[in-house]
Amino acid sequence: MNRWLAGILAVVVGIPLFFAIVGMLYQLLSTMRDERLYPVPGQLVDIGGRRLHLLCVGEGSPTVVLEAALDGSAVNWGWIQPRVATVAKTCAYDRAGAGWSDSGPSPRDARAIAADLKAMLDAAHIPGPYVLVGHSLGGLDVRAFAHDYPDRVAGIVLVEATHPDLWRQLPAALATMPSDSELTLLPWLSRVGLARLGWIDPFPPSPDLPPQHRVAARALAASTKTMTAISAELRALPASLDEVRDAGDLGDVPLLVLTAENTYPELPDDLSFAAERAWRMLQEDLCGLSRDCTHRLIAGADHETIVYKRPYSGATAVAIIDFVERVKMRQASAQSLPCAPREPRSVPTTARLTDNADRVSAVALIH
After folding, report:
1. Model confidence over 166-196: pLDDT tens digits?
2. What 3-state DSSP class applies to 43?
3. Are 116 and 104 spatial neighbours (Cβ–Cβ below 8 Å)?
4. Would you say residue 20 lies in a domain?
5. % of the chain at pLDDT higher than 90
6. Tens digit of each residue's pLDDT (9 = 90 or more) over 250-302
7. Do 303 and 261 form a contact (C-beta atoms < 8 A)?
8. What's the whole-model pTM score?
9. pLDDT tens digits along 261-272
10. Which of 63, 131, 166, 275 has its CB 3.0 to 4.6 Å from that of 155, i.e. a possible disulfide?
């Protein structure tokens, strides 16, 4: 009887253990293959014993710094970075643990991410002040940077940016965060290859990125390092929300808020209206952070396609370019008339933008 029970126990334990070992070997070999197939496109910048991947294109100031959404990778800016680089040096980077960057210490809250960004820009000898562009959760990071290093900021663009009070305003059915056990489990499931096989894919790369960026994004997202970084940022999200909530406003720093026309396209009708109303209200509130703010709606876009899919990414790029040109004019005016008073814009402006190839139309709705 004891031998029979021992045999059953060996099967129960042995089969899952066997598949776990096979999965870990598959993940390891696949990661090594991806490192050969997708070499570092930019430079690895040492920030004190660990490296962050930085990719800069274009010339001219102010330098535009792109802060990605949750997965934190430079490849997400595949449509936008080349277009913005036609008017200014434009830098995208991978946050710690994402893409080609080394992992970073915990916690991975907004202020820690902002400190990494400053250290990287300093080490790469890229002087400020910068125009910071933050998409989704990346909006929290650029706001933390603006609070901690205000003299390094020439302007801010918030693209479908997360408001620190979002989870207080969303319908209850949507106002949930992953549990600590889920966040602990996620990297382990990745370690045995389940993310790479597509059995779990909580944060899939967009299929609408440029082809070369899309395949790299898929490979990078399947790495254990990236999944661990995502888990760490989500675990620190409550602290990040508190940090940004307490950061205060931006004074007269130029601000552009870009909002998708349809942020939640997949929601059922009973949730969609309430969620869209809450999101739009919070986006308007973001514009109130600065006395010099413009709010634009990107026609037809949703939370992801506003950056990841043409033609919506084109409208986003054009809006950023227009903003950069305005910041340039402001800087030139300040240099030529250092003592002249500047009257900040007191009424935010909302515009609805579309982009059809290289043609852009805008209808201003001032309210």
Report:
1. 999 988 878 787 777 777 777 667 655 566 6
2. strand
3. yes
4. no
5. 56
6. 999 999 999 999 888 888 877 888 899 999 999 999 999 999 999 999 999 99
7. no
8. 0.85
9. 988 888 887 788
10. 131
Backbone angles phi, psi at 252, to 5 degrees: -110, 20
CATH of residue 347 = 3.40.50.1820
The two three-digit tokens of residue 98, written as one number: 């994402």
Residue 1 in domain: no
Q: Distance (Å, rounded) from C-alpha 43 to C-alpha 100?
A: 10
CA–CA separation, 62 and 56 (whole Å): 13
Is 167 domain-assigned? yes
d(CA 136, CA 323) in angstroms, rounded, equals 19
C-alpha span between 39 and 52 (Å, rounded): 14
Task: Answer whether residue 200 shows pLDDT above 50.
Answer: yes
Distance CA 299, CA 354 (A): 5
Number of structural domains in the chain: 1
- Residue 294 pairs in a beta bridge with 256, 349
Which tokens go with 345?
A: 């814009």
Domain that holds residue 197: 43-366
